[in-house]
Amino acid sequence: MAQHVAQPTATTPALPAKLPIGAIVPWAVFFGILMLVLLYFVGAEQGATSVVSGSDVHEWVHDARHLLGFPCH
Amino acid sequence: MNSATVRNLLVRGMLAGLAAGVLALAVAYLLGEPYVDKAIGFEEAHSHEHEMEVVSRGVQSTAGLATGVLIYGVAFGGIAALAFCFALGRVGRFSPRATALLLSGCALLAVYVVPFLKYPANPPAVGNADTIGKRTTLYFLMMVLSVLLAIAATILGKRLAPRLGNWYATVVAVAAFVLVIGLAYAFLPVVNEVPAHFPASVLWRFRLSALAIQVTLWTGFGLAFGELAERVLNPRPARAAAPSAVTAGGS
Q1: B200 to chain A nearest CA, in Å?
Q2: How confident is the model at residue B47 (pLDDT cuts 50, 70, 90)?
Q3: Is B36 in Cβ contact with A63 (below 8 Å)?
Q4: Selected residue with higher pLDDT from B105 and B51
Q5: What is the mean pLDDT of residues B109-130?
Q6: DSSP state string for B102-135
Q7: Which domain does B137 fall in, by range?
Q8: What torsion, rounded to 10 degrees, do the Cα atoms B135, B60, B212, A36 define?
Q9: How many other CB atoms are there within 10 angstroms of residue B86's CB atom?
Q10: What is the value of pTM for the model shown?
Q11: Residue A20 and residue A22: Cα distance in Å, rounded?
């Protein structure tokens, strides 16, 4: 099971084996979107746009939003 | 096997992001929060309308801050792990650990520092509520633009490397990135909504601490994820054991 593992030595690291694009894309699409949704809720929900009504999300992450550099209000 | 490797790296990226998020949270709480409080003090002294408090300050500065920073860490950890899967073996002759740290450094620049230089973090009381839509759009636009240009510059560098050699190809790719980012800085609208008499030192310290949070997050992520990725990809007991730290002598 180690056919793709590079053979590094102490002085000259070998070029690490590439992971095939086809194996990455399904994970990248599904989890990429999931992660972006998480970032949206931390960074922008109930600021410029709102999916959930009210201001509870905005108020809860208020300090994080300021300190992480997102425009808050 | 390969799909399982991607999954393993993704899970470890999110865990490394969580761990880095904990470090960033400590920096945010210790360095950043005092200036959030000072800014809110300014806001209250200069505003006649009193907002109803939905979430108390005590909760916002602890549990609320932790929620936001940790989710941010996990989310960017996952995204960076996926980017690492693409980058490994494709950007150059770097070990998994070196690829992880290099990727984290580039992510810090592309995701945070480049947008920050145009649209820096603002404490409470800085920013007009009426322009939140415009400011949010501009900030995310700058972030997306910077990340896409960084990817484009990497591809450009790889294309030029056979002709120019690694050194000059890297110089040209970075110069192209700086040039296009410079044009974006020049043509995107300026946002300056700092109220008159807002203390400059509070603004400066707030922004420095915001930068410190990101440097902590991405450095911590790069080191932690690099270590975990190395173990996934080179599961060999033959790796040299790290010499134990010298702790002799008084402190």
Answers
A1: 17
A2: confident
A3: yes
A4: B105
A5: 94
A6: HHHHHHIIIIIIHHHHHS----TT-S-GGGHHHH
A7: 127-193
A8: -50
A9: 17
A10: 0.89
A11: 5
* pLDDT single digits (tens) A11-41: 555 678 899 999 999 999 999 999 999 999 9
Query: Mean pLDDT, to the nearest integer, of B189-211?
Result: 94
Quick one: B121 and B29 in the same domain? yes
For A60, the token pair is 């809860």
Q: For B177-193, give the DSSP string.
A: HHHHHHHHHHHSPP---
**Is residue B249 situated within a structural domain?**
no
> Taking 50 as the threshold, does the pLDDT of residue B245 lie above it?
no
Mean pLDDT over B154-163 rounds to 96
Contact B82 A32 (CB under 8 A): yes
Whether residue A9 lies within 8 A of chain B, CB to CB, comes out as: no
Residue B92 lies in a domain: yes
Q: Report pLDDT digits (tens) over B78-95.
A: 999 999 999 999 998 899
HSE-up (13 A, CA, CB side) for residue B72: 31
Whole-angstrom distance, CA of residue B8 vs CA of residue B110: 25
Q: Please tell me whether residues B225 and B183 are part of one structural domain.
A: no
Q: For residues B122 and B102, give the distance between their C-alpha atoms in angstroms, rounded to a whole number.
A: 28
Q: Does A30 contact chain B (CB < 8 Å)?
A: no
| pLDDT given for residue B237 in this prediction | 64
Q: CA–CA separation, B33 vs B213, rounded Å?
A: 11
Query: At B223, phi and psi to the nearest 5?
Result: -70, -45
Give every CB contact of residue B234 below 8 A, 6+ residues apart in sequence. Answer: A5, A6, A8, B96
Same domain, B78 and B99: yes
